[in-house]
Write a structure and sequence with these properties.
four-stranded antiparallel β-sheet, about 30% helix, Alkaline Phosphatase, subunit A, about 475 residues, alpha/beta
Length: about 475
């Protein structure tokens, strides 16, 4: 995990990363009253109970490790129809669910009442490449390298292509060289790829404009295609340093990191949490306006639109900024709103995950069940039970942090992704802080939870 330490003058140093994922520098974070919250093994757990849970997790991981890494087949003889709805999957960087509110994003908040809204939705991770993997493959990031090293037959774009869709990937951010994402976001998996980004040093200044261009490009493809289309759009406006048009500035005061010359200057700046949070909310206001213009310009009776994020974002919660640093709700939860063709109005309060999105889209688009395709997720049109959410979190080297969320409890594990080795770290709260006073662990229930979570990651059968 990124390291944190207090300096002598009382500020807190927070590691941030370059766009390539390398730790660049410490940033002084000036906010009083923030706890350090280092990630350590839970000293309050009763060893016998956690040992039994850990043993169950180890057994489930060993038993399903080979299946988890196996390729999944494409449906052999899918139906085709010109009446299938268009599908547009919009993924915003660093998108927190609490900004989809009457105060900040009132247009999307109001529209969500007409479609499906998952109130407690988790990405597959707290970092982009693993979150996108869970979204587009409906598989855990535990199999990330195995997926990319094998045949990519279960990619969302290829599954929609089998249904007769023309597929597009549009992005306003750079993806080349970032944790292998260009190996599955490319013209081998999509019919067309368009990068709508600036080549200037201050790329973040152009993100709002490029996001608007991306939405316009999506609208043009919806209008001109002679067949159903599947579009994945990856937008950047809510990524640090949160640029936005001056006309959308409502929350003050703000800092001005967007005016800095380059990434080294950006990462060397001293940051103020409250001013950054105001920047982020202003950027969300701007995104709400451009998104609503796009939704107004398309035929929602013939188009299914999904709005979600690749991961969340921290603003000082337990001493962290941005993302990729804690197993916390603010870094792993994102909005999920589905609007338009084939979507019934529904609000889901139970836990859902990115692995649930693709099975739901395929059923809405074609009317066919995705059972048998080996997805880890379930169709959100059915009953939503009390099922665990499994996430692989960001870490450059092995072992990988793995978080299992079940209800209000969270178990942190460490797993090798190249061999079936796993151990338990302990239970954490919603902020990713070790739980030290929860009392005895219900090891019988948690044995079943870890078996379901890690067994489900094998995709041997669709979860019920």
């Amino acid at each position: 995990m990124p390291k944190k330490a207090f300096s002598r003058d009382g500020t807190q140093a927070v590691w941030l990363r370059t766009p390539e994922g390398q730790i660049f520098a410490q940033i002084a974070f000036e906010k009083e009253g923030i706890e350090r919250g280092e990630m350590v093994a839970n000293p309050g757990l009763e060893s016998a109970h956690i040992s039994r849970v850990e043993a169950a997790a180890q057994h489930a991981y060993r038993s399903h490790f080979a299946a988890m890494r196996s390729p999944r087949p494409v449906r052999s003889s899918p139906s085709h129809s010109q009446d299938f709805p268009n599908v547009v999957l919009l993924v915003m960087e660093s998108f927190r669910p609490d900004v989809v509110s009457p105060e900040i994003m009132p247009r999307l908040d109001q529209r969500s009442a007409q479609g499906l809204r998952a109130r407690r939705h988790y990405s597959g991770s707290n970092t982009s490449h693993l979150g996108l993997c869970s979204l587009l493959y409906a598989r855990s990031g535990l199999a990330y390298d195995a997926i990319l090293d094998g045949p990519s037959s279960d990619h969302a774009s290829l599954l929609f292509r089998e249904l007769g869709y023309r597929t597009y990937f549009l992005s306003s951010g750079g993806i080349v060289g970032w944790r292998r994402v260009d190996e599955y976001l490319n013209q081998a998996t999509f019919d067309e790829v368009e990068m709508l980004r600036s080549d200037s040093g201050q790329v973040w200044r152009d993100w709002p404009q490029n996001d608007r261009r991306l939405l316009e490009a999506a609208r043009e493809r919806l209008e001109t295609a002679g067949q159903p289309v599947f579009i994945v759009g990856f937008l950047m406006s809510l990524h640090f340093p949160y640029p936005y048009p001056e006309s959308q500035e409502r929350f003050l005061p703000v800092s001005h990191e967007d005016q800095l010359a380059d990434w080294p200057s950006l990462f060397a700046a001293r940051l103020d949490r409250d001013k950054l949070w105001n920047r982020y909310r202003n950027a969300a206001i701007a995104f709400d306006a451009m998104l609503d213009q796009f939704l107004e310009s398309i035929d929602l009776e013939k188009t299914l639109v999904v709005v979600t994020g690749d991961h969340g974002e921290s603003f000082g919660e337990y001493g962290t900024l941005v993302h990729g640093s804690r197993p916390s709700d603010v870094q792993t939860r994102v909005p999920l709103v589905m609007l338009g063709g084939g979507v019934s109005a529904r609000e889901i309060d139970g836990s859902t995950s990115h692995v649930d999105v693709l099975p739901t889209l395929l059923r809405i688009a074609s009317g066919a069940s995705s059972t048998g395709l080996g997805f880890e997720g379930r169709d959100l049109g059915g009953p939503i039970g009390d099922e665990p959410v499994l996430m692989r979190l960001h870490k450059v080297n092995e072992p990988a942090p793995v978080l299992i969320v079940h209800g209000d409890e969270r178990l942190l594990l460490r797993a090798r992704t190249d061999r079936p080795v796993l151990d338990a770290v302990g239970f954490v709260d919603a902020n990713g802080t070790p739980v030290t006073d929860a009392g005895p662990v219900d090891d019988g229930r948690w044995t079943l939870v870890v078996q379901q979570a890690l067994g489900g990651s094998a995709g041997s059968a669709q979860r019920r």
